Amino acid sequence: MPEENLQDALLKQVDECKEGFVDSNQLAASLNVDHQSIVGTIKSIQCFDGVIDAVLKSITKWELTQEGKQMAENGSYEYNLYNAIPDDGITQAELMKKVPNAKIGFSKAMSNRWLKVDKTSKPPVVKKQVENVKDEVKNLILMVQSGSMDVSDKSLNELKKRKIVQQTSLKSYTISKGPEFKLVLEKPETDLTSQMLHDDSWKSKTFKDYNFNSLGQILPSGHLHPLLKVRSAYRDIFLEMGFSEMPTNSFVESSFWNFDTLFQPQQHPARDAHDTFFLSDPATTEDFPADYVERVKNVHSHGGYGSQGYGYDWKIDEAQKNILRTHTTAVSARMLYKIAQEKPFKPVKFFSIDRVFRNETLDATHLAEFHQVEGVVADRSVTLADLMGILKEFFHKLGIDNLRFKPAYNPYTEPSMEIFGFHAGLNKWVEIGNSGVFRPEMLRPMGLPEDVNVIAWGLSVERPTMIKLGIDNIRDLCGHKIDLQMVYDSPICRMDM
Asked: What is the pTM of this model?
């Protein structure tokens, strides 16, 4: 029966019922439909407030199992077995073949002391011990089948153990008229349309009440990658400390700005093809300040500014090679050269956060592309103590207060320090950055005054993010194989490490 017809039939039955209510099971039987269909109809009518009242009730009753129904018709196993024994007895083997379910019947008949086994005979025979018996089990089954309430709990439990009866729960609804009862249901309108206003049909329409407490639909939207969240947190810290962001929009850099200006010799292993990505087109560039190139060449080949240099034949061809930048310090070198040309000198604080590229072997902790964070301070007479003070303030804002500094070597800083922070979650010291004071061989050829020093430090974005999110493989954080659900579920970035 279609749902609309079932609704009409149910409402009609409720309207015409003299008792004032209708039982859902009785209604399902009278309409010859499944009770679940009646339940569904009740739920759909209840969407219209006040039309009907439906109270759920549950009735527990005992009913016969399939085995119980067979006993109600044929008698219990023990009674049938008793009647199958002749007056002079029968062997147990013959009895087992003679009667269905004889094993159960024999056990029950023996426990009732209806039978005895005469072991004086050869072979032993089973004989009746009483002259007459009553099939009390069948009588109990018939009482349960009739719905009698006179069966004791002890008897019911015994029948249940034998799996003759089972307890079932019958659920039904008591349906009665509600305060807004009506035979014809009209779905309330959710919107006032221009057509309703035009033909005045809105006057006879019923409108659904607005639920001003309901939440709006959550629309699909983009999500920030965890690296972007951490990058934004770093950027906010630098801006709070008064730093200015350097332009890092050029991934392609010349070897001159990436290596030579940093006083990194042309035979350094980092400049080999197995560590650096070289471009094939355009393979070289010649856009360098000529006088600055000459000063860089001299300091590499012959030294100066208190240095003896490297003492090799510096070649412009090597400096002209285009590469994917291996660090953002190349950008710092360009900015320092730029401020050196501005007279008089003004102290500056720069920072950058962007991608760099290394020809690395890919594994759980290394990628060929990653992010580098760099801070640079240029001022008169700044020292290593100033660097340590700025680092403590910077990492304090990241939530890392327990720092250690370890002497290190970098080609373009002297002195140089590795930065370690104690990670409470990992319960160990973790390297979190590198730092140092730029060498005079790097700064003086640019034209910076002799009393101007430059302190700098750098760290990655990936490692702190992996620690915060509990990721042990960097390829689960970056790249084309990452789980997008991780991006959706990543928490707000709180730099408390």
From this structure: 0.56
